[in-house]
Design goal:
Oligomer: single chain
Strand content: under 5%
Structural class: mainly alpha
Strand order of the largest sheet: 1-3-2
Distance between the termini: 134 Å
Length: 284
Amino acid sequence: MEQARMRAAEARPCVPAARVPVRAPLAPAGPPAAPAPSTTPSPAQGVGGRRPAPGVPGAGPGGGSASPAPGPVPRTVRRHSVRGQVLEALRSALAGGQLEPGRVYSAPALGARFGVSATPVREAMQQLASEGAVDVVPNRGFRVCVRSAAELAELAEVRALIEVPVVLRLARTVPAGRWEQLRPLAEATAAAAAAGDRAAYAEADLAFHRALLSLAGNRRLLALAEELHRSSRWPPPAPGAAAPDRAALAADAAEHTALLEALIAQDLDVVRSLVRGHISGSDA
């Protein structure tokens, strides 16, 4: 019997091992293991493993443009743009006297006035509050600040302590040709003064002083000087106070041109006198 079984086995044909289907072992229970990281980024990952922004040329396979991701456009960008426009409109209204010192304005009422929602108005008013132009009145809105003569004198004193030595240092080092580049800004203040446009004059005046002090190359000084400048130029000193007329604006604008001439000539005594007088609003 044993010999018969051995003869039958020898007669059975052999099956090549390569043709035998191999069954993979069962994976152990539990979550699947994470795939090994690949050093070659996929088209969806982009360079450095980052997913390319939709709509960027070359982001899709084959160098084409990827389709933009579905969904609405974020409203934050648009709101910030509206807030900037509202902020400039409020600054012009403050400088022009359309917003009365001492009066409280609500964000919804101002929003209706500008044709926008209350949110960008409230954000713009918060910025003006940080600049010292308005005060926050809880549950009511914002009160336009009233500048007393004493407060204006304090602001002028601080401005003089900062700006006079800086401008004197610049007068010693800045070449005459560089001062000539500021002349169009001085002419812009004169044009706004001649038109009697207080809001346009306020912005042109600020642009001139910003360009002047920016030559010092100190961003912190420039930010502080601008904050003081904005605080001192609006609103009028008190309710009912006379606003600067064209003659007063023209005289103030003329000091810009006179200052440029003194800086070009490096006449330090005249520069010192003009800067002090211009800041304080006197002939000192």
